[in-house]
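[job 4471] stage=fold_predict status=RUNNING
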Amino acid sequence: MIIDCHGHYTTAPAQHEHWRKQQIDAHSKGDAVPSRPAMTDQEIAATIRNGQLRMQRERGTDLTIFSPRAAGMGHHLGGAETSEAWASACNELIFRVCSLFPRNFIGVGMLPQSPGVSPKNCLAEMDRCVTAYGFVGFNLNPDPSGGYWTDPPLGDRFWYPIYEKLVELGTPAMIHVSHSCNPAFHTTGAHYLNGDTAAFMQFLTSTVFKDFPTLNIIIPHGGGAVPFHWGRFRGLAQGLNLPLLKELLLNNICFDTCIYHQPGQDLLAKVIPADNILFASEMIGAVPGVDPETGHNFDDTKRYIDALAIPEEDKAKIFEGNARRVFSRLSKQIAKQASMKGAAE
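[job 4471] inference complete, writing structure tokens
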């Protein structure tokens, strides 16, 4: 089985995004928020069949670990109640997709974060996503402010309620920022990669994994700048009299393969152990176009893994084994959903 650990519902029905606009407008005016719009199973299924499911089949992957649109999380918009209602709506929609296509999609939840609001605000939604929806992980935004980094770093005890709940539920977190409202940082070209790199350094200088030795964290987009500057981070750790990075971080941190050219994938596989790499594409996502140098889509990342000069057993870890280990609920959820008859199948 080839498991893509990083997919977003970027093709949701238009009325879902329209309700979000209504919600934010109502908050800014102090008005009551309209009721959520109706969306039929047929409407939802059509957006998947013509998008992510079609690409799964064309590219030869089997299962996508699926979450709400990352740039659409918009934790900086509205207030805590706004984020709670939006996260609830988005997660429910992911659950419906997974119920319609149970063999192709398994859910990861969005957290109802807001700048300056305690992460304890997220715990009830985390419980609901796992117990009611069968989700296997969560996306954690280290910067709910949208590019201004107003909350404490990830090593601060401010975040510990999230880590405690992740460990309790047996679920990993993927570090993932949302839309940038800071004009200095392009959302997908700078803010995403900044967030990945900053998160790694924040964990490096923290005691999070000493305090939570079984916590699993995924840093997406190939780890931002981390693999390319692995020597810098090794040297920084050494200068701080910390253990080797392999001992300090690699028991708890993995990187995904959302890197959109072969040399980048080659570097990741050369620098980072195979046990710490999870296959991912983020399709349909930030870079959906065709690479004129190869004639293939930039985000068709399976091609890059197939071309790696590494042992087949390492490719098997990247494509499947590591995801089953890091997402500790995944194998059980795969088996459960395999026995379901999706209404759209």
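[job 4471] summary: Residues 45 and 344 are 6 Å apart (CA to CA).
[job 4471] exit 0
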